[in-house]
Amino acid sequence: LKEQLPTWQHIGAPPKTYHKNKNLCLQQTHNAKLVKDLRDIMRRLTNQDAHQQQDLCPCNDCTNDRLKGCKNPHKCTTIGEKILHNLLPKYNPYSAPRRDDLTLTHRRLEKNAQAK
Fold it and tell me: What is the pTM of this model?
């Protein structure tokens, strides 16, 4: 559910999260509309074998982004990462949900499955 929220003007974004000039490429070239879109763009940062932290990274994702018109795909990726990490914990896709003691126990889950 957190990934289906809109990226821009996000309800969980603190003030000064967005920068019009810096985010323009993410909005127009990368077509990032949802939080899921930013996470997909950021996944290349975890692929250390292919992605390199430089302007002309030779990985497939960065090459495709440059073909679409992005001048510095790595910079866009790090900007997207900053936006996601700045979201409040309740809306942040990387934070675990708070324990509220309303979650069903293992036995209750089994009984519900059997009742179906």
Answer: 0.69
